[in-house]
Amino acid sequence: MPQTDFSHVTSWVFDLDNTLYHPSARLFDQIEVRMTAYVMATIGVDRAEADRLRVYYWRTHGTTLAGLMREHGVDPAPYLTDVHDIDLTHLVADAVLAARLRALPGRRIVYTNGSGPYAERVLAARGLAGCFDAIYGVEHANFLPKPERKAFETIFAADGLRPDVAAMFEDDTRNLTAPHAMGMRTVHVADVAAPADHIHHHTDDLSAFLARLIG
């Protein structure tokens, strides 16, 4: 991976969950339990049906929240507060990753389908508070979720980000489709590669990948 592939990049966009921490932290195990419970309480179905709908909404609409909003008119604010009320005490601070993030030239932002306050909690637990110039949650995209292109356009317009000089780091390959189409350099962060035309690079170790970028 030549550094020249990123020599033009002046904005670095990072997803949060399973990207800025390893999936072995299993935060989504906690979140999914709370999402299923929220679906049960909101639309009055049993746990099995709520779990099925949670996955269906994620696949169909990009997030469970988007499905609940579009199909049931759910108010997003209480949902986001509830499902992200999870334990983060087992997350480990990563001073090396923090230093490598800070060494990236240009603007660094977090963009997550979770909420901004949740992202701030996770970053603090990982020792990454202060590494980013801005943090954007789904609320900043008017609750439109990744992978919808309009969601990216909304966030990037608010940030003043130029996609042609930006890079996107994501664990979900779906969420790299729009950035690629917009002209961004795309990096899939996951244990297993999923080669596709819209993915330029893959890494199973974000910190090591960044170390190769900053030399």
Please give a structural write-up.
- The chain is of the alpha/beta class.
- It has 9 helices and 6 strands.
- The protein has a 6-stranded parallel sheet with strand order 3-2-1-4-5-6, with helices on one face.
- Helix 1 crosses helix 2, helix 2 crosses helix 3 and helix 5 runs parallel beside helix 9.
- The chain starts with 10 loop residues before the first strand and ends with a helix.
- The mean pLDDT is 96.
- This is Pyrimidine 5'-nucleotidase.
- It holds the Pfam family Hydrolase.
What proportion of the residues form beta strands (DSSP E)?
A: 5-15%
- First CA to last CA: what distance? 12 Å
Order of helices and strands: EHHHHHEHEHEHEEH
Largest sheet: 6 strands, parallel
- Structural class estimated from helices and strands: alpha/beta
Shape: globular
